C-alpha cells in the first residue's frame, strides 16, 4: 500500500522532479549560517519526512507558461520553510514529543529553542520570498503567516466549546491549512506568468485541495489506526478540539435531552488523575461509537469527495500539459490519502 | 528624575510627535480582525509602556528630505510591532511573569497563546512593511527578524560558557538589539528619500545607539537597583548569561589559579534547591563585588560613551534640521538612560 502511494506521488511530481531537488538545495543554504547547532536543527526538521506537497503545488502551478525558472523554486522553498516553521511551533504549543515517528525539536532541544528556531525559520521563509522581487507575492506570503497563526489561535480559544458551527470549522481549517495551499498555488501561478483568471483558478483549486487535506486528517483522527497515526484515535476530541465528524454529531443531536450530549459529557473530564483519564476514555468511546453508528464517517467522506471534485472543476480553464495531469491526479489522490 | 527624563524624550520626539500618534493608530488597525480576544491581547501589549524609541528612530531618519508622508509611518508601525513580537516570545522562553510592572502575555494567557500571538504579531509586522512597496526595505526587515531570532539562539547556546570573547558578545548584542535599531533608521532613511551615503550614515548612527542601548541594559543589570529594575541585580549572570562586565572580569582574571574563577564557581550552582540558591547568591555577590572593586563599571561606561560619541560623529554628513538635533540629543540621552 505504501509503495503504491509512493508510486502515485512519484508520477504526480514527475513534471517538477528535478526542480524539487533544487528546492531542497535552496532550503539547505540556510545551514551555512554562523549560528551554533543550526546545521543539526535544520537537518533534523528536513529529514523528518513530509512529502513536500506544498512545494510541489507551487512548482506545478508555475508550469503552464514559460517563465523565469528560478523564482518558483525560491517560492517553493519559502512555502516549505513556512510549513516547517508552523510545525515546529505547533509541536511546541501542543507539547508533542513525536512527529512522524521522530522526536520533535521541542522534545530534543526544549521549548526555549523550539520557539526561537521556529521564529528563525519563519523569518528565513519571509526573506527567501524577497528574492522573487514581486511585492504581490511577498504580501500574500506575510498575510498567509497571519492566517496560519490566527487559525491556531482561534482553535485554541474555541477548545471545549460544544457549540461550534460548520462555518466556524471551515473558517478555522481554511486558516490553519488551506490558506498555505492557496498561497502555494497562487504565487506559483503568478511567478509562472499565468493570466489572472488562471491564477484565480489555481488558487481555487488549491483551496479545495487544502480543505480536503485537513478534512482527511480530521477524519483519520476519528477512524484511523492508532499505530499508523502515531497518536491515539480521537486525539482532537481528547484535547477539546471539535472537527467535522463531531460537529456533524452535534448537528444531529440524536440524544433525548441536552444533558445526554456525549461531547459535553466528554469535555467535563480534563484532569490528569487516573479517574479523569478513565472517564475521558470511556466518554470518548461513546462519542466515537455514535459517530460510526450514525454513518457520519461516510457523510464526511462525501464532503471530502465534494472538495476533490470541485478542485478538478477549477482546472477546466487551464491549458493541458503534464502539470495539468499531475494536479488532476493529486485531486483524486487526496481521496485515498493515508498517513 | 523621571519627569526630567520624560521632558528630554518629549523634546527629542518633538519633530515627529504628530506622526508617532499616527503610528499608534496604524498599529491599532490590527485589532479589527475576527480573532477572539485579539483586542484584549493587543491592548495589553500596547499599553505595557515602552517609549517607542525604534519607531521614533524610523520617523526621525525619514525627516531629512521631502518624501511620501505615509511610508515612514507604516514602517515605524512595523518596526514597533516587530519589537513587541520579540518581547512576547522572549518573555515566553524566559518564563518572565512581569515586564515593566505588568503581567506578561504568557503569564496571563499561557505559553500556548503567547507563542501563537507572537507569531501573529511577527507576521502582521511583515505584512505592514509590504505597504511600503519597497523590496529593499521589505528584505531588510525579514533579515532583521532572522538576526533577532539568531541573537537569542546564540545567547541560549552560549549560556554558562565562561570562555566567551568580547567579539562574540558584540556580535550577539548586535543581533538581538542593534540590528533592529539599524533597520529602523536605515528603512526610515530609504523611505525618506535620503541619498545612499546618508542612508549608510543613519544606519551606522543607529548601530552605535543600539549597541549603547543594550550595553546600558547589561550594565544596569549589574549595578542597578533591584526595585527600579523590577528584577534581581545580576539576573543575567544568575541565568548563565555573560555580558560585558563579566567578560571584562574574565579578561582580567585577577585570581591566583583557574580554579578560583568566581564566574565558573557561580555557574556550578544551577539547581532549585535551597542550598543551590544560597550558594548561587553567595557566589554572585563575590562576582559583583569584584566587578565593582576593579573599576569595571567605569570601564563599561567608557565603552558606552565611545558608542554615543561615534553615533554623533555619524551624523556629521547629514543636513541640519530639527530631526538632526533630536538624533544628536538622543545620543547623549543614551548615556543617562535609566529604566
Report on the architecture of this protein.
Two copies of one chain form a homodimer. Chain A is mainly alpha-helical. Chain A has one domain: Farnesyl Diphosphate Synthase, CATH 1.10.600. Helix content of chain A is 72%, strand content 1%. In chain A, strands 1-2 form a two-stranded antiparallel ribbon. Chain A is globular. Chains A and B meet through helix 5, helix 7 and helix 8 of A and helix 5, helix 7 and helix 8 of B.
Lay out the secondary structure.
2 copies of one chain form a homodimer.
Chain A: H1 2-13, H2 17-28, H3 38-46, H4 53-61, H5 70-93, E1 98-99, E2 102-103, H6 105-109, H7 111-130, H8 135-157, H9 166-191, H10 196-223, H11 226-229, H12 235-238, H13 244-252, H14 262-267, H15 274-293, H16 296-314, H17 322-336
Antiparallel strand pairs in A: 1-2
Summarize the structure.
Two copies of one chain form a homodimer. Chain A is mostly helical.
Give the H and E element order of chain A. Answer: HHHHHEEHHHHHHHHHHHH
| Overall geometry of chain A | globular
Count the DSSP helices of chain A: 17
Secondary-structure-based class of chain A equals mainly alpha
What is the CATH C level class of chain A, in words?
A: Mainly Alpha
Low-confidence segments of chain A, given as residue ranges, are none
* CATH homologous superfamily descriptor of chain A: Farnesyl Diphosphate Synthase
Average pLDDT confidence of chain A is 93
Tell me the span between the first and last alpha carbons of chain A.
11 Å
The amount of beta strand of chain A, in percent, is under 5%
Helix content class of chain A: over 70%
User: Radius of gyration of chain A, rounded?
Assistant: 21 Å
Oligomer: homodimer
- Count of folded domains of chain A: 1
